[in-house]
C-alpha cells in the first residue's frame, strides 16, 4: 500500500511540473510547428514522460483492483472451492471451461470436450466454442500449459492476473485517447484519475472477474483510441495503414470476447453514419471502418463455427445497407440546400429500409430465433405493449436492465466529472450543430462558381467555429452511449469510462476554451493557455486531496469470503453423487455446480439460445404452482437425477410483487399471483399449491417422486425417482 501511495503522488507532482511542455502540441491540423532548435528534443521528452505516466497509471490501476479483490475475499487464504464459488452466476460458467481445459489430458482432448460438450446441457451435445465467447479461456489455458509457470503460479491466479492486467491496457487506452484529442498528456492523466476515483461506476472487474465485458472493454477502448488517431488530418499513407490494422485487430478481439459486441458496434456504426451524413467525417475513412466492422465480425463468425446469431446481426445488415445505399446515391453530397436535405432524408430512409429487409431475409433463411428475447425485452421496455413473455419479464425485472439510478449522477458529480462533462458536452454540441448547418450551407454555395464561391466560403469560415473529425466522433459516441446507459444500467460502464475521456479532453482543449472565451469576448491566446493548464491542475489537486484518504481506507479494509451453506452443498455433491449425475435448479446456482463439481446441468445462465430459454422456463416450474407428477415428468424429460431448491427463490423478497420469479411463472402459466394486489382479469387460481413449498411437507404424493437427500439453511436437494 505504501508503494501505491508513493507512485500516485509522484505522478501528480510530475504532471504539475511538466504541463508547459505540451503547448507546442496543440494545433488544430495535428502538425507540430517548426519551433526553435530545442523544440524537437522537448517534444520527444514530453512524449516520453507522458508515456511513462500512462504506463504507471495503468499498472497502478491493476494493482489497485487486484488488492481490492484480495482484501474483499482474502482470496489467497480461502479454499479452492470457496475461490470457485466466488465466481458467481455466469462468471463461474465461463471459468469452468478454463478449468476444464487445464485439467484435460491434452490440449486436443480439451478442445474436443468443448466442441462436443454433453455436460453443459443434459441430453444434448453442444459446441461451446460456437455458442459462447470462450476463446479467451481456451487461449489462456493453452498459454498456462505451455509456459514454465505451473510450479510458481496457480491456474486461478494466472487467470485473474490476466484480467487485472487488461485493466492496465484499458486505462492506458483511455489515457491515450484523451491525449490524442486534447494534444496534452495532462488530459490523459486527468482521465485516468477520474476513472480510478469513480471506480464504482466505471468498472466492476474486482468482483465479476470472468464477465465477458471485462475481457472486451479494454479492446474496445483500444479501438476507440485507434479510430481517434485515424480521424486526424495529414496522416501519412503508412501511418493510416498501420492505424487501420490496429482498428481491425482491436475490433476483432472485442468481437471475439463478448456476445453483445454486435449491439455496441451497431451504435458505433450509427455514430459514423450520422457524422458522414453531415459531412463531418471523411467518407473514405468511414467506409473503411464499416468494412473493418463487417470483416472483424465475419472472422469471429468463422471461428465460432458460423454462429447464426452473428450472421443475423443488425450490424452486418446495417453496414451492408449503408454501402449499397451509397452506391445507389452517388451524388449524395452535391446540390443546393433543399436538394441536399431531400437526398439526405431519402438516404436515411433507404438505409433503414434496406437494413430491415436484409436482416429479415437473413433470419428467414437461417431460421434464426436466438436473439428474439432481446427484441421482446426492448419492445416491452420502451412501452410498445405489455407482455407476459417469461424471458422478456425476467430481464425487465432485473435492476441491471432498468433505468440508470439517479444516485449515479451524485457520485459522478462528487468528483466534478459530471459537471465538467455536462459543460464540455453543451459547448461541443452547440459547435457541432453550427458546423453541421454550415456544411449544409456550403453545399448550397457550391452551386456558385468562380471567385464569388471562394470569397463566400472564406467569409463563412472566418465567422464560424470548427470541430475536428476526431472530436466530432467522440461527441456523437458519448451521446449515443449515454442514451444506452440511461436506458439500461448494465451498459453504463461503456459510457462512464468514455465520460472520463471526453470531460478531460474538453477541460484541457485549447479549442474548447477558445470557443468559450470568444463567446464571452475575453479571448486572448495567453489567457487560453493559462486556463487550459491551470483548471485541469486544480481539478487534479481536488481529486487527490478529496479521494486519496478514502482510497487508502478502502485498501486497508480487510474482509473474508463467507458462504458456508454453498460450500457445504458443493462438498456434498462432490462426495455423495455420481460424476455422471444430472442436476436441475436455478441458472445462477448451476453454473457454480458445474465449476465446483463437474456435474452435468440441465440449464445455465448463457441465455442466447431459444431451446435453452424454453428449457429453463420448464425447469423453473419447480417454483410454480404445478402438481408433483407434472414437475417430475418435466425434470425427467431432461434426464434430471437431482433437483436443488433454494429458499431465497421460493420465498423471495428482494423483488416487489409482480417481479418475483414465482410471480413471473404464475403469470406465464395463467395463474393468480400470491399476496395482496391486483391481478389481470383473465388469470385464474391454480388447483395446485406451490411446488417448492409443498414438497417440504413430505406428503405421499410428493415422496413417491422425490426423496430429500440433503438440506441446510439455504438449499434442499431431492433425488428423483426413476419409475416410468
Write up this protein:
One of its GO terms (molecular function) is mannosyltransferase activity. It is a multi-pass membrane protein. Keywords: Glycosyltransferase, Membrane, Transferase, Transmembrane, Transmembrane helix. One of its GO terms (cellular component) is nuclear inner membrane. Residues 1-34 are annotated as: Disordered. With 724 residues, the chain is mainly alpha-helical. It has 2 domains: 162-370 and 400-448 and 456-518 and 527-556, no CATH class; 564-720, Rossmann fold (3-Layer(aba) Sandwich). The protein is 66% helix and 3% strand. It contains 34 helices and 5 strands. Strands 2-1-3-5-4 form a 5-stranded mixed sheet. Helix 13 runs antiparallel to helix 14. The longest helix has 35 residues, at 39-73. It is globular. Mean pLDDT is 89; it is low at 1-33.
